[in-house]
Write a structure and sequence with these properties.
Number of helices: 1
Radius of gyration: 25 Å
Largest sheet: 2 strands, antiparallel
Distance between the termini: 56 Å
Strand order of the largest sheet: 1-2
Amino acid sequence: MYTTVNEDGILNNYATEPQMYYSEYPAIWEQRRYVLQGAVATMFVSLLVLFAVAVS
C-alpha cells in the first residue's frame, strides 16, 4: 500500500494498481460463441416479451 501524510497529519492509503495489459482480438471460435450467446439472449428476451403480451 502507498501511504501519504498531509500537513495536518492525516494519512491517505492508496491501493497498489495492477499492471495494465492490452486485450487481444477474440479467436474465431470465441466469435462464434458470442454470436450463439447473442442469438440465445435475443430469443429469450423475445419470448419474455411475447409472454408478457399474451398474459396482459
